[in-house]
Amino acid sequence: MNKFLLGFLLGFLSLNVSAQFRVEVSGVGLTQLPIAVVTFRGDDASPQKIGSIVLSDLERSGQFRAVDTGGILLDEVARPEFSNWRQKGADALVTGSVTKLADGRFDVRFRLWDAVRGLDLGAHSYAVSASELRLVAHRVADFVYEKLTGDKGVFSTRIAYVSKVGKVYNLWVADADGENALSALKSTEPIISPSWAPNGSDLAYVSFESRKPEIWVRDVASVKPRLLASFKGSNSAPAWSPDGKMLAVTLTRDGGSQLYLIDARGGAEPKRLAQSSSIDTEPTFTSDGKTIYFVSDRGGSPQIYRMPSVGGNPERVTFSGTYNISPTVSADGRWLAYISRVSGAFKLHIMDLASGAVNAITDTSADENPSFSPNSRLLIYATQQQGREALMTTTVDGRIKARLAGQNGDIREPDWGPMQK
Amino acid sequence: MKRLMFAVVTAVLLSACGSAVKLDNVPVEDKSGGANSTNAGAAGMNTAVGKGGVAGVDLSQSARDDAMRATNRIVYFDYDSYVIRPEFQSVLEAHARFIKSDKNRKVVLEGHTDERGGREYNLALGQKRAEAVRRAIVLLGVADNQLEAVSFGKEKPAALGGSEADMEKNRRAEISYR
Question: By three-state DSSP, how is residue A207 classified?
């Protein structure tokens, strides 16, 4: 805990990415690659500052540390003075330009340099409209991230979350950095549990508009909603199978909250997954589709269990604490994230599934709803800071955190979308 | 001995008077501006009809539902519990009698929790509260197909504020005539 506080003090950095959104990154990572991202030539005339979006993305990943460029402008053609950059402490350097074209679009170019060995690691150019500039910046960040870490970048992915302002609820779809939020649904009744389909365009969620919880699916492109489950009683906790064909859900149609599988196209009879006289809820699939983790209080208090997705005996997974909920497993199968109540506080925990070792990785006390990034490196979760609900991202080890602030009202229920195809 | 007899007789008379006045806990409301409108098909509902300005009871279904909505229709629960405390038995009995009086009436039991804990688990806890009330009302003779138990979890608190008193008001099941 003290180490984290020290790191927090040493590493606090605040970036103004736009007037509306502020991303605050804090913490010190174990191994961070020092990188310099210059101001792109033509940035001042561009509606989006490509260089600073790229830098924000890389810092939020926790695997990069920004090196001060002194405001220098360098385009993708200029050959940098590597000794200068090495002296500043940079191992890598990103240069580039933004040029407005005659047809109103923008020509964005960048080049990535290995400053240590003086090597050109690659360059790209894009011709896009103004509204696509942020996406291009994210793709630049993905390229840099993949080249230098070997992992796939998640900067071009999307998140879904819910906001509540007074009596109005909105279901938002936004970029992974929280920007470009578009409302997929506005309602005066609560919306909870948004869940991205593996295809990255369908979103399942629970709506109370009919004065009871029902599961709906909405294609975020066409904004056309489809009622997926409105059986007797309550319908909630939708979780897509990795092939997108089924959803595991919680239904109370047979009395009591129990787990069922339903066909994603709707219509067919639900298939009961497990039988208990207790509460079974919050199902979630592993990325290979073979296992479902879920919450059950069959042992007397809510704990996390897992069972084969084809059905079979559940096996208990959490053994410390009396209240463990909201399980989610990283795509690489290594980590289980969940919320555990500790002395009345609700805190995000990470379990190493191979060893069973558990770590609490936050210093907040009202954590909810963790969701892994599709590259298994980050989590998004909801929490409360200064009395306000907010979304946070964190590295799996908890060292680097970023707050996605900016939407009015309370924000909660995040879900991280899949890799963009 | 005489005094004891007097007390006993008085008590008997008083208790007899008491049961004549009881109208299934439905407040008598003058909905029709004074006219003594009664519905001959109103099984189970006593009416006090008489001369001298006694208001009649509008016994159409929506008016009766309105009347029931106005009465106590909330059952409260202890933390982490879905056990119905004995003090709410009379509330359940009153509503059970009312629901039984019309086989076509559909009633929804809405379960709620306080703000502590996860949303989906609280949805399931609220469901347990709604189902506890449903079971109790079924045990009092109401047909199962007249009842649906749903949950709002922690999404619709009755009291905002976060104090212990507020949280008590949120741990509840509501009997809803829709």
Answer: strand
Question: Going by C-beta distance under 8 Å and a sequence separation of 6 or more, which residues neighbour residue A236?
Answer: A192, A193, A206, A213, A215, A249, A250, A281, B120, B123
Diameter over CA atoms, chain A = 71
pLDDT score of B57 = 62
Q: Tell me the C-alpha distance between A239 and A241, whole Å.
A: 7
Contact A56, A66 (CB under 8 A): no
Q: Residue A232 maps to which CATH number? A: 2.120.10.30
Q: Does residue A348 or residue B37 have the better pLDDT?
A: A348
pLDDT at A60 over 70: yes
Model confidence pLDDT, tens digit, residues A83-135: 999 999 999 999 999 999 999 999 999 999 999 999 999 999 999 999 999 99
Flag if B149 and A252 touch (Cβ within 8 Å): yes
* A212 contacts B108? CB cut-off 8 A: yes
Asked whether the beta carbons of residue A302 and residue B121 sit closer than 8 angstroms, the reply is yes
Tokens of A413: 């229920």
- Residues A203, A347: one domain? yes
Q: Please determine, for the modelled complex, whether the ipTM score is greater than 0.95.
A: no
Range of the domain at A210: 158-416
Chain B closest-CA separation from residue A282 CA (Å): 7
Q: Please list, in sequence order, all residues whose beta carbon lies within 8 angstroms of the beta carbon of residue A392, skipping any fewer than 6 positions away.
A: A362, A364, A380, A381, A382, A383, A401, A402, A403, A404
> Which residues from B are below 8 Å from A208, CB to CB?
152, 155-156
What's the pLDDT band for B5 if we cut at 50, 70, 90? low
On whether residue A3 sits in a domain, the answer given is no
* CA–CA gap between residue B46 and residue B31 (Å, rounded): 16
Last residue of a domain, one of A120, A149, A178: A149
Residue B124 touches partner A, C-beta closer than 8 Å: yes
Query: pLDDT band at residue A220, thresholds of 50, 70 and 90?
Result: confident
Q: Are A372 and A379 in contact (CB under 8 A)?
A: yes
* Domains of chain B, CATH where assigned: 20-71 (no CATH), 72-177 (3.30.1330.60)
Pairwise CB contact (< 8 Å): B121 & A279? yes
**Cα–Cα distance, A158 to A147 (Å, whole number):** 22
The values of phi and psi at residue A66, to 5°, are: -75, 135
Find, among B85, B65, B167, B69, the residue nearest to B129 by Cα. B85
Distance CA A172, CA B114 (A): 26
Average pLDDT taken over every residue of chain B:
77
pLDDT of B22 = 39
Using a CB–CB cutoff of 8 Å, tell me whether B138 touches chain A.
no
Q: A230 CA to chain B: closest CA distance, Å?
A: 11
Domain count, chain A: 2
- Mean pLDDT value across residues A355-366: 96
Gap between the Cα atoms of A296 and A304, Å rounded: 6
Sign for the pseudo-dihedral over CA of A254, A258, A261, A262: positive
Q: Please report, rounded to a whole number, the percentage of residues in chain A having pLDDT higher than 70.
A: 93
- How far apart CA B44 and CA B28 sit, in angstroms, is 14
